[in-house]
Design a protein that fits this description.
It is built from 13 helices and four strands. It has 285 residues and is α+β, with helices and mostly antiparallel strands.
Length: 285
């Protein structure tokens, strides 16, 4: 069963050195300020919908995160990103970061003591933004993990990835794509879509919705299955357990999720998770 503090503790499940290339780049910077600036500059390579800013407010610095996909976001992912910043920068500086305030756009997902344990204070919830405020003095803190040579290599790789993201792509307004986005959005918010809700979001009746999907050679059930399959890979690859992933994807029990993984990937959920984590380890090495 899903644990409510999953967003806060996910980073603890990662083996030493297993990080996204952007995190590796940030850790090779000279100081905390340069690391946060790198995260803000290249956030889109982790996800094209991720948007990060770092602003000075007198003696404080505010780091903000926004997921720009039709104004929805996954509360556990936001908590995970902020937890990574806390954990990785604390390790890299050898000091506890002086967080003065932390805000989340969502209600609390875990007990308040779990937040206090991770961040040193209880956040404000249901805020207008996701942000962490630090003492501005931390910008000059040197990173023990700094490596100018490795930074130069990683910077070239990251800029190449960013250039690829900026390549123009053909616009699409298909009902299939819009419906699939709605299905994924609902899964990320912890629920399972109904055909009635998705049809309404797509601006048509259930009858018309089915007919139009048929013209695109698909069905609502097929889109639901596709979204579950893709999110299964993402969740397991990011470190979530089999049971947690099954819960998030709306399966009644883990065994049903196991059957689905066999059908999708010809592997058990555990085998798939191990393979994805091994790939992540190699990339992060």
């Amino acid at each position: 069963m899903l644990q409510p503090d999953i967003g806060l503790r996910m980073v603890d499940a990662f083996p030493e050195g297993q990080m996204h290339i952007l995190a590796h780049l940030a850790m090779r910077c000279a100081n905390v300020g340069a690391a946060l600036e790198a995260l803000c500059s290249y956030a889109s390579i982790a996800s094209s919908a991720d948007f990060m800013t770092c602003e000075n407010h007198g003696p404080l610095v505010r780091f903000s995160y926004e997921h720009r996909t039709e104004s929805f976001g996954n509360p556990w992912i936001v908590e995970h990103y902020f937890s990574m910043i806390m954990v990785f920068l604390t390790r890299a500086t050898g000091k506890t970061l002086p967080i003065r305030k932390i805000e989340f756009m969502f209600p609390a997902q875990a007990v308040l003591d779990a937040y206090k344990h991770r961040f040193g204070l209880v956040p404000l919830f249901n805020s207008s933004h996701n942000s962490i405020e630090f003492d501005a003095a931390i910008f000059g803190w040197p990173l023990l993990t700094r490596d100018q040579y490795m930074y130069g290599i990683l910077d070239k790789v990251v800029k190449s990835e960013l250039d690829n993201e900026k390549m123009p792509r053909a616009a699409s307004t298909s009902l299939r794509e819009k419906a699939r986005r709605e299905i994924v959005k609902t899964f990320l918010l912890g629920s399972t879509s109904s055909i009635e809700a998705v049809a309404r979001e797509c601006g048509c009746s259930v009858k018309i919705f089915r007919e139009r999907l048929s013209l695109e050679n698909t069905t609502f059930r097929h889109l639901l299955d596709e979204a579950r399959r893709d999110l299964a890979g993402e969740h397991l690859g990011s470190g979530l357990s089999v049971n947690e992933t099954a819960y998030l994807l709306g399966f009644s029990e883990p065994s049903a999720f196991q059957h689905a993984c066999k059908r999708w990937f010809d592997k058990s959920a555990g085998e798939l998770r191990k393979g994805l984590m091994d790939i992540s380890d190699k990339i992060g090495s």
